Amino acid sequence: MSPSIVAEFQSCKRRGRCCSKSSNCGGPLLAAFAVVGLSALSMFIVSSSVWRHTSASNLSRPLSYYAPAAAARFSRLSTRFNKLARDKISSRFLPYKDGTSLKTRVQNPKNGNTELRHNLGWRNDRRLHTSLRAFEQKSTDLVYSGAGSQYRVLNEEDMEEVGYATPADFYQLLGVDEKANKTEMKKAYRSIFRKCHPDVIGEEANEFCELVNIAYDILSDEKQRPIYDSELEAFKLIEGDQFDGRPKSQWGGCCNATENRAVFVDELTCIGCRMCNNVAPDTFGIEETWGRARVKTQWGNYEEDLADAIDSCPVDCIYWVQRRQLPLLEYIMGICNRVSVAAMMNGAAARDSPFARAETFLKTRKSAKVDSSLNLETNMIHNEKLQAAIARAWLQLPVNVRDTLWPQYSQFQDF
Asked: Could you give the CA distance from residue 155 to residue 245 in angstroms, rounded to a whole number?
């Protein structure tokens, strides 16, 4: 750098502003250095994205295949630098695993000091401190939104009380097949009452035993049973399969054995852009009926790829959820009404939410009662209200009794 340019630059530095009187000012030179630096950074982002996503199966793919990951990384870096420059970072904070909640001042797990923390940490810092504390919130609201991190949780109290797989009709309540004869039903009926009578386990079995008596009376009657069977079949055609506690997605191996987070796609919001599938193809797939993204394998890719996939979604329809709550969310997603992407974009259908429907499912179960409103003595109709009453009454039984008489429902209780 020539002495004249150095002198002009020092003069500008003393005045605190750029000198516009001289064409030899060092400002343009510094700007040129900045442009070159940003260009190098962009090339590094693209090349690192290409390297991470390159394998024997996609070496022949065009450069445009890697664009979503590169764009997500560049967008994330730009956001971090802009927020740091504004120096106003108190609106969102990263939850931590050390037991602290979403507060302005949190305890640093490395040194124990209380300090101001924010969500602008680098990837390795977020991987170390990404918290499951947000899952303890009592709402389905978006509890944290940041780079690669959107958490949604269902009400924990309702999930612990009624969020399990349960018998859903009179046949399952008695533990018999739909083609069972009277002898088999009588045997099942007696077996249940030997272990579930209120004199044996207490008053919590009153509603359940009342339902068992009604179920046995209806299914043992040659006139009432065909009516109930037809109503049950019609209900299944409308509502589909019952909630059995099984997750629909497989569990992959790109995580720790104790990992209790899972990834969930709100398919009602998804527009089928395939960005997540391009970035993390071993985790996300495209379902054939409606052309929307769906998680086929949990943790089929490592967390860094999953974060890039979540960042690349243009409509923010991908969420982290609790592994414990995943089976219910996937079941509710399967029974939600939906239309094609084109019809949705044109406003042909009202916006629904699997999270809201899951909350309604839990509240319906929690408030269900076995009372005169069911009209079971004169009405053999199987509906959602009766199904919720069966689930509620069954869940009031002691766990050891449920596991003994209905072992098929305890298999997936602790997924």
From this structure: 17
Question: Is the confidence at residue 401, as pLDDT, over 90?
Answer: yes
Cα torsion at 232, 236, 238, 242 (round to 10°)?
130
Which residues are 286's β-sheet partners? 293
Residue 250: the pLDDT is: 94
Share of the chain above pLDDT 70, in %: 60
- Structure tokens given for 318: 């991908």
DSSP symbol at 66: G
Question: Taking a C-beta distance cutoff of 8 angstroms, is the pair 216, 174 a contact?
Answer: yes
Please state the length of the chain: 415
Is the distance from CB of 172 to CB of 219 less than 8 angstroms? no
* Separation of alpha carbons 331 and 97, rounded Å: 29
pTM of the prediction?
0.67
Q: CB 322: neighbour CB atoms within 10 A? A: 22
- Both tokens assigned to 288: 């054939």
Nearest Cα to Cα of residue 287 among 267, 311, 264:
267
Q: Which runs of consecutive H residues, i.e. helices, occur in 224-379? A: 224-239, 275-279, 303-312, 326-335, 341-345, 354-367
363 pLDDT exceeds 80? yes
* pLDDT given for residue 369 in this prediction: 84
Which SS3 state, helix, strand or coil, does residue 190 take?
helix
83: its two tokens = 């927020």
Q: How far apart are CA 329 and CA 151, in angstroms?
A: 13
- For residue 61, give the DSSP letter: S
Q: Using the predicted structure, report yes or no on whether residue 226 has a pLDDT greater than 60.
A: yes
- Which amino acid is located at 192 in the chain? I
pLDDT of 35 higher than 70: no
What pLDDT score was predicted for residue 177? 93
Average pLDDT (67-78) is 61
Q: Which two tokens stand for residue 241?
A: 């399969």
CA 170, 154, 263, 106 torsion-angle sign: negative
Nearest to 246 by CA among 178, 164, 184: 164
